[in-house]
Amino acid sequence: MLIQASCFLDFTCEFPVPTIFMLRPKSGIGQFVMRDELQVSPYVAMTEFADTYGNLCQRLVLPAGQCQLRSTVVADCADVIDVDYGAAWTPITDLPDGMLHFLLPSRYCESDKLGDASAEITRGCNTGYEQVEAIRQWIHTHIQYEYGTTDSSTSACDVLETKKGVCRDFAHIGISLCRALDIPARMVTGYLYELDPMDLHAWFEAYIGGRWYCFDATQHEPKGGRILVAYGRDAADVAFATHFGAVTLNDMQISVEEIIA
């Protein structure tokens, strides 16, 4: 399916603020970027680099005063996400080198504290996809989606205590529980068609059966129509904006629509 996604941001800065954005997706498995555009008003010079994971990062200095940024992308996306209950756990000895750091605890994903919880949630499951799907279903059933209950310092363990959070928190729990089972897991940010309420979205992927599979605990069932923008160990790696100074976000508007050919 053809998807057009846009992100509009309105900022105010008292002084110029160096900033890194992650708003431009790349073509890859499950998506082909046909067109993308990034506009800043007033115009400022911008450079781009790829981070450790290959995510495209836009580097600029937000000017003093009001500044607006609009990112628009058109991509051909998979209508559905792949599901394979037979995908088996990959022994650590067989994992590619690049997968190993996705097994480790990270800032928001304290997997070293959740061994008992992950074992209980996945009891009776075959190792691999079935375990991860059991984790996804458990999060969907036991964690309440509620804005304003978490902030940028909230970790997976924090949310497991309160049982409330938003998409990034759901992803952090899923990642943590997977890593506790020695399943590589990573956080993904991007756009999801027909997300309600509409916003920038986050989900997680697990490496099983020799490849990455998508899991989204905020949704009732597997859904396609996704544009992956960035991925990393957790939210610290995939922030859509990183400001090196004081910035006020006045407005943010997200739109994701299907284009009928």
Automatic annotation (TrEMBL):
Signal peptide: none annotated. It comes from the Bacteria. Residues 159-219 form the Transglutaminase-like domain. SUPFAM superfamilies: Cysteine proteinases (SSF54001). InterPro entries: Papain-like_cys_pep_sf, Transglutaminase-like. This is Transglutaminase family protein.
